[in-house]
Write a structure and sequence with these properties.
Number of domains of chain B: 3
Number of strands of chain A: 0
CATH class of the largest domain in chain B: Mainly Alpha
Strand content of chain B: under 5%
Radius of gyration of chain B: 25 Å
CATH superfamily of the largest domain in chain B: Sodium/glucose cotransporter
Largest sheet of chain B: none
Order of helices and strands of chain B: HHHHHHHHHHHHHHHHHHHHHHH
Radius of gyration of chain A: 13 Å
Strand content of chain A: under 5%
Largest interface: A-B, 16 and 26 residues
Oligomer: heterodimer
Number of helices of chain A: 1
Distance between the termini of chain B: 59 Å
Structural class of chain A: mainly alpha
Shape of chain A: rod-shaped
Structural class of chain B: mainly alpha
Chain lengths: 30, 569
């Protein structure tokens, strides 16, 4: 994997983590 | 505003401009002035991309939206990280390797001069006008809140941008953006701390957020598939993907930011900074609004946040009606405060049934408060004759002035104003670049010296800056014109993305196909806008798809692109 491809993978992981975090926030308060 | 806040405001603004210009090198050469000789580190270009997208409207309007509507607007940004990856893999390498100054220059290399000229003309028209809106929207609010003259406020926002963009070019824009982003994040954190610190001792933040959640303000996902609703999971992930690909991939005010990076990977990394940070940042912006809402559950908020409008109403012919609403409002606020305290008590007692009942009672109490506020706003609109009055924009400025300590107020208003300044600077820079590269050098003076182009670039930057300030000052008179131009701008967003998709993904597409496709895409979006209530995010999808389909058909019918040229791509 190239340097930039590794960053793409990290971005996708961070993106999924953001969505999961937001979903948990909604669940925690509703 | 206190004299200390004035010192902070003017001092920090002056320092940002001075330091931006100090860091500028090679601004006497055209590629230094317009592309920084491709010397900017990726992280600085990345922060500049973020600062350009974040305007004063975000600081005032979006935080206010968080107060009134909660977190659901965050869904709008769900597709942004994916768009950044798509662009890094597709358009960025094409732009960077071809050594272009503008995104539209690439279209002439791929298609023809008419496609380039038409797209760049659309950009100049829509961005030129929107620059005025970026200044006027916060200028109107700040001039009323702070008691300043509207023209002076518009100039205070616009002039720094004109000065450092004119003399420092893209480097000054980038380095000021870096500092502005840091100040903006600091201001948002300060607002959160102030809202939380202002809660009564017996109430925790979690109690307050539970109360906010009872009104739907903590909803971050809406999975309903409704084409007329702007903020759903589907519009935020599917439709917004097209918008962000178009904005970050084809709008010169953004493309120019990452073309300054030192390498192709650097340009990609610059875009990916937003991919990491945009969703968390937007959550913080909206959370500021939600926490200010929680704060005002326990500290009585004004019926009308705009003091000037409230005073006009109290002194005008509708004063009696306003006083009656005020009395009703105070009673409703007391009831809401009790209901909010009951939510906290039920939560601590650990009974889910009691919590459900308390939340429902709070929701009803908040609905009553909202109802009275809506009537008061309607009264401002009818009695004050200001049909477009929106009190939501005054919530956060009012909170800053009444709840933030002296000194910090100045710093937060620097963040608000410089948020606008950074957006305008990037746009002036892009407008000047497009005017010079795609029009002046292409059509009028193809072989002048760098020195000549540089001189004209500075003049054109000043011209667009003055134009934007004039549009901002006369925004009220130009109201319908600005709306028309913005509407035309929104017609071409998805369509222009379609042209770039044709350029990259359809090897046989030719200039005729791209040009006819672009006009067809814009026309279809205009018809959809006029005759349906489909939310605007979906217009980008429709525009892009129509351009690709029509552009491909027309290209085939007109003989396509020579196979040799297609193979070269």
């Amino acid at each position: 994997m190239t340097f930039i491809q590794r960053i793409y993978v990290r971005v996708i992981i961070a993106w999924l983590a953001s969505l999961a975090g937001l979903y948990l926030l909604q669940v925690a308060f509703n | 505003m206190h004299v200390i806040d004035w010192v902070v405001l003017l001092g920090v603004t002056g320092w940002i401009i001075y330091d931006g210009l100090r860091r500028t090198k090679h601004a006497n050469e055209l590629d230094g002035y317009l592309l920084a000789k491709r010397s900017i580190p990726w992280w600085a270009a990345g922060l500049s991309v973020m600062a350009t997208q974040l305007s004063a409207i975000t600081m005032i309007g979006t935080t206010g939206q968080g107060y009134a509507d909660g977190l659901r607007f965050v869904q709008f940004y769900f597709a942004l990280p994916l768009a950044m990856i798509v662009l890094s893999m597709t358009l960025v390498p094409f732009f960077y390797r071809s050594g272009v100054y503008t995104a539209y220059e690439y279209l002439e290399r791929r298609f023809d001069a008419k496609t380039r000229t038409f797209t760049s003309l659309l950009f100049l028209l829509s961005r030129g006008m929107s620059c005025g809106v970026v200044i006027s929207a916060p200028a109107v609010v700040l001039s009323l809140v702070l008691g300043w003259d509207l023209t002076a406020t518009a100039l205070l926002i616009g002039l720094p941008a004109i000065i450092f963009t004119m003399f420092g070019g893209v480097q000054a824009v980038t380095w000021t953006d870096v500092k502005i982003m840091v100040i903006i994040v600091g201001a948002l954190v300060a607002l959160i701390v102030a809202a939380v610190a202002g809660l009564p001792g017996e109430v925790s933040v979690v109690d307050g957020l539970h109360a906010a959640a009872a009104t739907g303000r903590m909803r971050t996902f809406d999975f309903s598939f409704d084409l007329t609703n702007q903020y759903t999971f589907w519009s935020g992930t599917l439709a917004a993907l097209f918008l962000f690909c178009s904005y970050f991939g084809t709008d010169q005010s953004q493309v120019q930011r990452y073309l300054t990076a030192r390498s192709e990977d650097g340009a990609k990394q610059a875009l990916l900074v937003s991919a990491y940070w945009k969703i968390p940042l937007q959550l913080v912006v909206l959370l500021v609004g939600v926490l200010v809402f929680v704060f005002y559950l326990f500290t009585p908020p004004p019926l009308i946040f705009s003091t000037v409008h409230a005073e006009r109403l109290a002194a005008g012919p509708a004063a009696g009606e306003y006083r009656a609403l005020q009395a009703e409002y105070e009673t409703a606020l007391d009831a809401r405060r009790e209901a909010a305290l009951a939510v906290g008590a039920a939560r601590r007692a650990g009974s889910s049934d009691a919590l459900r009942t308390a939340r429902e009672q709070f929701r009803l109490a908040d609905e009553a408060v909202d109802g009275i506020r809506a009537r008061a706003t309607a009264l401002v609109r009818s009695a004050g004759g200001e049909a477009s009055f929106n009190d939501t924009n005054y919530i956060i400025p009012s909170f800053i002035l009444s709840q933030i300590p002296v000194g910090l107020v100045g710093l937060i208003f620097v963040a608000v104003m410089m948020a606008a300044t950074s957006t305008i600077a990037a746009e002036l820079n892009a407008l000047a670049t497009t005017s010079i590269i795609d029009f002046y050098r292409r059509l009028f003076r193809p072989s002048a010296t760098d020195r000549h182009y540089l001189l004209v670039s500075r003049g054109v930057t000043a011209f667009w800056g003055v134009f934007a300030c004039l549009v901002a000052i006369w925004a009220a008179e130009l109201g319908s014109l600005i709306e028309v131009v913005n509407r035309v701008g929104s017609f071409f967003y998805g369509s222009i993305l379609g042209v770039f998709i044709l350029a990259i993904a359809v090897p046989r597409a030719n200039g005729h196909g791209a040009f006819v496709g672009l006009i067809a895409g814009m026309s279809v979006v205009a018809l959809v806008t006029a005759y349906t209530s489909v939310a605007f995010l979906w217009h980008n999808v429709i525009g892009a798809v129509v351009v690709v389909v029509v552009g491909t058909i027309v290209s085939v019918l007109t003989g396509g692109r020579p196979a040799a040229a297609a193979a070269d791509q």
